[in-house]
Every structure is written in structure tokens, then in C-alpha cells.
Amino acid sequence: MSSKKVLILVNHDVVIYNFRLELVERLLWEEYEVYISSPYGERIDDLVEIGCHHIEADVNRHGLNLFQEWKLLRYYKKIMKETAPDIVLTYTIKPNIYGGIAAKSLNIPYIANITGLGTAMENGGLVQKVSIALYKISFKNLSKVFFQNKENQQFFIDHNIAVGKHQQVPGSGVNLNHFSLLDYPESSTVEFIFISRIMKEKGIDQYLEAAEYIREKYPYTRFHILGFCEEDYYKTLEKLHDNDIIQYHGMQRDIRKFLFKTHCTIHPTYYPEGMSNVLLESAASGRPIITTNRSGCREIVDNGMNGFIVKQQNSQDLIDKIEMFLKHSHEVKEKMGLAGRKKVEREFDRKIVVDAYMNQIKKETGW
């Protein structure tokens, strides 16, 4: 029997390697032939090495150039005709929409994943109306759409998009072996960390304001930042780094060595998250978390048990919660971290997500 083919459409190599690797490995182990279409990145070589085929794509994640969008749709149709996949898996907005339209036009089963609505969709206006119309077209004949949180699913229900094809999964889940429980640091210095793309909507301004205030009042604290500067914050970070307010480490391939020495992860985002992987990975590592009261974040926090929830875009509330955390004893902080680990073990194991996908893929491909 010849292998069944799976084509995966993503907008970045990290999306597939960091959050879908276990699914890819399972597909390969069960003798599916796996094709990945994405822009080239360093993780593509790792995926090819384990047996995947890579098809390079030009996906502008933020652009709204109509010609580029049309080219991407045509490109997806072209590679689907060439590879003849038995099923297509799509992640993130543009692959979901244009990959969905291409698969629908060629009568290929496809499964989409809503990893977040995106700012334009959440803020309303013309872009939201156009996006809703495109989702209705692209999702008309899809096999299944996985949602990472209830709020995103409700949006699709409210706009009558693919109703009856919905299924919720616990985000991307977290690999509990890769992000194993770490010993809680014994150091007298209390270290906080922000891990994200450096952009306004991820709450970097609130984090920096809190860092300035807390560092002056509590000199035994440290504030770390990991992530690529997606917006124009580099000079600000450089100045604060030179003034010993923060320590900026840039983009890091493996965050575990930083989680090993930090006491708490702060994620003050107000970006439309699907489910925050940073929070899942931090909680799995036994680190308390402080994050905003919004969908994709609040699900991971039992307030006061494994972390604290703060108001969006509210630096003072973030400062208050950091001070509350600092007042806890080392033993209480450690217990908060353990509570977070137990929560992700119960609710966010990546195996749950992989099993959901494999069940649907087998249903569609007949394997």
C-alpha cells in the first residue's frame, strides 16, 4: 500500500517545529508522507532531517497586498496539484484562508486550526468583514476546525462559520517531557522573565514600566527579556539594558536554560492569543505565571494558586501583582510552580492535541 500524503501549510518554520513536532513525528511513524509548505527558516533543516519534504513558500504574515494574496492562493493550488495530498492541515490566518480555498477548489479534505483571531479581526471594521467573508468561503467544505479557546470558537459560532465542524483542543498543548519540572531556584535574587515577540500588544510597555518601578524599590529583583524585536523597541531595550533595569537576551532557540534560573514568567499581553505557549511551557517547568485576564491566558492560571491575573494594559495592576508575589515566601512560590505543573499535566498535555488530529486524519484518509 502506498503512503498517504499530508500537506501542512504554515507561515513560519517555528510554528511547525516548536508546537507541532510531535504530530509530525507521529505521522511519519505511522508511515504518512509529510510535506511542509512554509518560508525557509533554520528549523526546516531539522524537519527535513527527520523525513519531511519542504516546499518553500512566500507568506507575508502582515501584508494586505491583494496581488500577493492572489499569488499565495495560486501557489497553494499549484503545490496541491503537484503533491496530490490526501489531506491538508492549515495553521494561522493566511494558510487557513488561502489554503482552505485552494483545498476546497480541488476537493481535498482539510483541517484548520485557529491559533488566534488576529488584531484586525478582533478590532472590527472593514478588515474584519472581509476576513469573515473569506473564512465562510474557505471553511465551507472543511473536515474540522480546531479552536484553542472558547472565545475564538464563539466568534465563529456568532458569525455562522463552519458550525458543526468545530472542536476545541487545549491550545497546542505542551510536551511534558521536553518541558520537564525544574527545581525552583534558591537564589536570594528574584528573577522575572518576559518571553515573546517584542511588540506593543504583547504588553512590553507594561513590563518595562513595572521593571523600572520594581527594580528601584526592590534592588534584589532582576527582569529578563527574550524575543525578537518585531517593532521599534530596540533602542529602548538597549538603554534600559545599559542602565541595568532589564537584561535583554534577544531571540533564543531554547528557553529552558532561562526558565531554569528564573522565578516567575510575566506575560502581560493583550494580543489576540489562541493559547499562550509561553505560559504553558513556563507552568510545565514549575514556574508561577503572571498574565492578563484575556482568553488564551486566563485558562492557564488558577488565580492565586499557580499565578496571578492582571488587568490588560494596566501597569499599576501588574506592579501590584509583582509586589504580591514578592511578599510570598520561597516555599509558597515553589508550591505555586508545582500547582502550575499539575494543572498542565491534567489539562494541557500535547498528547491530547496529537490524538485529536490523528483521529480526524484517519477518519478522512481511511487509514
Automatic annotation (TrEMBL):
InterPro entries linked: Glyco_trans_1, Glyco_trans_4-like_N
Gene3D superfamilies the UniProt entry points to: Glycogen Phosphorylase B
Sequence ranges assigned to domain Glycosyl transferase family in this UniProt record: 191-342
Record keywords, A-Z: Transferase
GO molecular function terms listed in the Swiss-Prot or TrEMBL record: glycosyltransferase activity
Domain Glycosyltransferase subfamily 4-like N-terminal per the UniProt entry, residue ranges: 5-149
Protein name: Galacturonosyltransferase
Species of origin: Natribacillus halophilus
Classification lineage: Bacteria, Bacillati, Bacillota, Bacilli, Bacillales
